User: What shape does this take?
Amino acid sequence: MTQHDLVVIGAGPGGYVAAIRAAQLGLNVACVDDNEMLGGTCLRVGCIPSKAMLESSELFYESSRSFADHGIGLQGVTLDLDKMHQRKNQVVKALTSGIGSLFKKNKITRYKGLGRIEGPGRVAVRGDDGTVELTAKHILIATGSVAASLPGIEIDGDRVGTSTDALAYKEVPKHLVVIGAGYIGMELGSVWLRLGAKVTVLEYLDRILPGMDRETADEALKLFRKQGFEIHLGARVTSAKAHGDQCVVERDGGDSITCDRVLVSVGRRPATSDLGLETVGVATDKRGFIQVDGRFATSAAGVYAIGDVIGGMMLAHKAQEEGTACVEGIVTGHGHVNYDAIPGVVYTSPEIATVGKSEEALKEAGVEYRKGVFPFRGNGRARALGQVEGKVKVLADAKTDRVLGVHILGPRAGDLIAEAAVAMDYGASSEDIARACHAHPTLAEALKEAALAVDGRAIHI
Assistant: This one.
């Protein structure tokens, strides 16, 4: 057996960050993952490749639409999908290779294989060359999640598939049906819509982007439909099956839909199968998520868990924060994640970003608040970019003025939300944001104006 201080099972964003931080704190760390490339779902087949495809598809889309407005004339724009995929793969390879370099720099031992807990302080790694036995005082589970499905949907990894499959289509679908209007469904639907596919989105709820501020999501819905999305709300899918090179999607109360590809994007479930949780008594809830306390400790002594596998917001950066807080807690006794200041971003065009409470959540909790809104059409930088759709909304406590939520629909919202997240993490008021000098002309001025609007003092509307 090989002895380590900490064995991390899973090399996704939460796992590899936890391993690096633990090594920085002086622990002898091992990280177990069964994929050749490090980085987990996010880097290999999720966040990074999808953003690469979103960027490429948006450039293709805009080349035939807005470039002329800038005085740029193009003749015969063509799509080379193979090259687009090659670029995506190069981006992924560079980042996953970088994690390997970071492991070497921090003297982290990497084991390739399936990690399974075999008892207190024991992890077996089943690899191509047999099984390696590891022992450690601390074990951290960071195995993430896998795509969920629905009864009646027959996923074959080709015609009917998940986001992983939708990132690798060899040709642009003529008609893509997306089941689920969450972050992933709308992002990947955007990719193929821009590249020329007809895209139909079927969402069971009466809204898109569940969990996001409703007013912001409703405005986004209008813009998506304007772009060409065919979106059906209140649509309960009962069946999706491939028939040769076609698919048939059945839904309650509506006609069946024939298409050539189906993307199933109905959420994710924890990846806990064959982890050996039962060998040490790790408790899970009824949905299979591992239960942890405030220090990410499970019901088994010496076993911790972070990221998607414990539920909550299934976001890479949330897992990273948890990984850092967990190992800092193990070594120093201190580690904390402010769950009220974790941003979420939908990388469509325009982007949608959010942090903190929505209006619906504040109303449900009986919290009195004031709202400041500023449209991007009043922002000079947005005008120069030719991207004036959307707005910034700031929600502040009616008594203390502390910022409780910020919601942005508009250009580069994913970058702009960082200022709001930092402000909220430090307990800032809308007055604090409004008083801070913002460079002109920048998109960030829209956040300043929305903060001013909380008190009815916006300048440019």
The chain has three domains: 2-147+269-337, 160-266, 341-453. The first strand starts at residue 2 and ends at 9. The first helix runs from residue 13 to 24. The chain has a mean pLDDT of 97.
